[in-house]
Specification:
Blueprint: H1 27-30, E1 33-39, H2 45-55, E2 58-64, H3 67-75, E3 83-84, H4 88-96, H5 116-120, E4 132-138, E5 140-144, E6 167-169, H6 173-183, H7 193-207, E7 212-213, H8 218-223, E8 229-232, H9 234-238, H10 243-246, E9 249-252, E10 259-267, H11 274-284, H12 287-297, H13 304-309, E11 325-326, H14 334-345
Parallel strand pairs: 1-2, 1-3, 6-7, 6-8, 10-11
Antiparallel strand pairs: 3-10, 4-10, 5-8, 5-9
């Protein structure tokens, strides 16, 4: 896939001050602007431009690399955003914390195109009272096949001594721990201390062979040839590659499976541009728009009509995700993971 430029980041401080007057959805600014907090490289710029051209609403974007980063910023007072896209486990947390507006589905008519099979699996927001599904997918592994012609499609690749210093994994506790747990045959949502300690040992072995845990720069670094094996999301790598480079890159979901995510669009509590948020969410859920985004990301669409309009072949199919498992909100048990992750990071 040819690289498509993404929007420049908005200075975060501009979003934390009192930059609007009036109440919810009131005032001239509310009719012409939407403040959107999104993952890095998740929606192509031409889609944003189409929305602005069709509606006259300017989309001002700020980006994050992990759910934890997004959540921490919002909890620390990073207000001003209207829409964000958390993964399912964080949707659950944000509902519990009272951080989201209920969704009026009469204002999202394109919701009807979302695959009911996907909707039936949602446990983090039953009935979609607070969220509209965006994409379901999983992180996997991209390999430079020119440098690494022979490899097993397994998480075991990160234990290879011959690739030491040429690999990276995500700086994401649930993803990396989940990978190790699935390699061992356990649930990505386990609370079992013995299972978690075994996973810690596996991740410690990986840590000694990778260059770093990295959730932001692994795509460009892979494109420059610095790394030959990277764990991460396919779109973060392939949007950095031109067609000649892409021929020497292979993405796969390991045979053991791993954590799976369902990212959903939500409206943040107290959003100043509420009606614009609804227009944006419905626009993104439109089949032709969803197909354009899926083509950009090279991942399968959960929009039934959108699938028919895709022009690119996804890097993987939903069948490849059969052994993957949705991450759940662990509640207070997340402290078990945080303690182990901290010990891994400091080399304990």
């Amino acid at each position: 896939m040819k690289k498509i430029p993404v929007l420049a980041l908005v200075i975060a401080s501009a979003l934390t001050g009192g930059i609007w007057a009036g109440g919810k959805g009131e005032g001239p600014a509310a009719s012409k602007v939407l403040y959107f907090y999104n993952w890095v490289t998740y929606i192509p710029e031409d889609v944003r431009q189409t929305f602005e051209e069709e509606t006259g609403i300017e989309v001002i974007l700020d980006e994050f690399a992990t759910n934890e980063e997004m959540y921490a910023k919002l909890k620390a007072g990073g207000s001003g955003y209207d829409v964000t896209i958390p993964s399912g486990d964080f949707v659950s947390i944000m509902i519990r914390e009272g951080m989201l507006e209920p969704i009026d589905m009469s204002k999202v008519p394109n919701f009807k195109y979302i695959d009911p099979e996907i909707l039936s699996k949602i446990t983090f927001d039953p009935g979609n009272r607070y969220s509209v599904p965006f994409f379901a997918a999983a992180a996997g592994i991209t390999v430079n096949t020119k440098q690494v012609p022979n490899f097993e499609k397994s998480w075991k690749i990160f234990s290879r001594s011959d690739l030491k210093g040429r690999m990276t994994m995500l700086d994401d506790m649930r993803e990396v721990m989940g990978d190790a747990l699935k390699l061992l045959g356990y649930s990505v949502n386990t609370r079992n201390q013995e299972e978690l300690q075994k996973a810690k040992k596996v991740v410690g072995d990986w840590r000694d062979r990778i260059v770093k845990f990295d959730a932001e720069t692994f795509g460009p670094a892979f494109a420059r040839g610095e790394f030959w094996v990277v764990q991460g999301y396919v779109e973060n790598v392939f949007t950095e590659l031109d067609e000649s480079m892409a021929k020497d890159a292979q993405f796969f979901i390991p045979a053991e499976g791993g954590p799976m995510y369902l990212d959903s669009m939500v409206i943040l509590k107290g959003a100043k541009n509420l009606e614009n948020a609804y227009r944006f969410i419905d626009f993104i859920s439109r089949p032709d728009i969803n197909a354009r985004i899926a083509d950009f990301l090279t991942i399968p669409s959960l929009n039934m009509e959108g699938r028919k309009l895709m022009k690119e072949t996804p890097a993987y199919s939903y069948e490849d995700l059969n052994r993957c498992e949705f991450k759940e909100d662990l509640g207070r048990d997340v402290e078990l993971y945080e303690s182990i992750w901290h010990e891994i990071r400091i080399g304990k």
